[in-house]
Amino acid sequence: MPGGDGLLSFDLHPDDKGPKDACGVFGVWAPREEVAKLTYFGLYALQHRGQESAGIAVSNGRQILVYKDMGLVSQVFDETILESLTGHLAIGHCRYSTTGASVWENAQPTFRSIGSGSVALGHNGNLTNSGDLLELVAKRSAEIDRAESPGDKGATNDTDLITRLLATYPDLSLLDAAAEVFPELRGAFSLVFMDENTLYAGRDPQGIRPLVIGELADGGWVVASEKAALDIVGATFLRDVAPGEIVALDGDGIRSRRFAVERQKGCLFEFVYLSRPDARISGRSVHESRVEVGRRLARDFPVEADLVIPVPESATPAAIGYAEASGIPYGHGLVKNSYVGRTFIQPSQTLRQLGIRLKYNPLREVIEGKRLVMVDDSIVRGNTQRALVRMLRDAGASEVHVRIASPPVKWPCFYGIDFASPSELIAAEQSVEEICASIGADSLGFISLEELTEASEVPADRLCRACFDGSYPVEVPDSARLGKYQLEVVAPGR
Ligand code: SF4
């Protein structure tokens, strides 16, 4: 039953919008475990990747049951609901919308009947050819001369299109159907999906979003967006799902199928902000890469100062690196109200006017009279940094030097990250000097793209860096530039 009440909001302050992730996915096959509870905890570890809705699909070998709703994982599920989701196999999803509105119908996992069974599917990433896929669904349905199987009515996201396409191969196994459908998809997709008996995972040929496989000690398989979700359920990391690979996991072990040649272009922004610091991407520790960026920032943009402070939490490793390399003491000058940005309660006008103060509070006793280096992970619109610089000065800072652990974000992402619209990206129009003046800092330094790439230890030709350099590794047709409501535009009322 839809749970939206029209009051849901993540934007406590309309001008305070940073990059938004595009979802976390988790799957587990484990006959000896309470799989819905493992999935719940896996999603908990991935909550930072999507906070609009959450869902779990579970199979007992005979049928798949899906439970999903708007809200955080802890708001959607309680003990009673999880106890009712019994089976040996489950997948889970937490969503931030990039194609399709943030409504119950677009929450995941998506579900369809397929032949004599069914499929449930969760997706991290964003497809760039949704318009073509919509036509392909109609064509395939006509070819097999069969009305579409029942599924999620009213869904307008790219993920539902994948599920609908899979359902147009009712005579194939789900693995064979996926091998037919996935080559038709363009853009970013890290998928977990399931039928009544087997857990599957698949990743686009570029491997833009991460996806890892783990093994449970008592027998069982886990797939997740990040390694932290394996750790939280006690699974041992085995390997990444390779770009262009589909894996099937069940009592017969792991089976692998290639549907495309690997052309790795992993998202560089995962290193900057999206992934948790305890993630490993292409074998590289995200925490280590962020600390190294901080060291390089200190070398490239030195300044005489008394204290290095991070904008918590994602900039903390880079601030540690800056302090280490510069010899300037590290400290905490900003306290983050970790949960307020994820409330579902619409703030009153009085609270909205407080803006950034709802999220951060300065530690006056640490800041007063000091020359500060404030390290942040990225600048999107510049409003957050402008407010923070003002807040630090109001709290008594004598100087505020801003160092940014990523290059200027100049182009939008079409592969699953929702930045501000292109016209709102401050670096798209302004030089570093102009941005420095705009945010009111004493000095400003961005890590270069080359330095950030080196710190990731991934070769440049195996990375997507499009939001920094405008070079998109997967073609972006005009239809994809319609934005997240493109399927509402293409098929209004569907
Ligand atoms: S455009 Fe930026 S955020 Fe999007 S996939 Fe490429 S590097 Fe990542």
TrEMBL record:
[4Fe-4S] cluster binds at residues 267, 413, 464, 467. The active site is at 23 (nucleophile). GO terms for biological process: 'de novo' IMP biosynthetic process; purine nucleobase biosynthetic process. PROSITE patterns: GATASE_TYPE_2 (PS51278). Transmembrane segments: none annotated. It is an enzyme of class 2 (transferase). The keyword Glycosyltransferase applies. Residues 23-252 form the Glutamine amidotransferase type-2 domain. Binds 1 Mg(2+) ion per subunit. It holds the Pfam family GATase_6. One of its GO terms (molecular function) is amidophosphoribosyltransferase activity. Its cofactor is Mg(2+); [4Fe-4S] cluster. Its EC number is 2.4.2.14. It comes from the Bacteria. NCBIfam families: purF. In the C-terminal section; belongs to the purine/pyrimidine phosphoribosyltransferase family. This is Amidophosphoribosyltransferase.
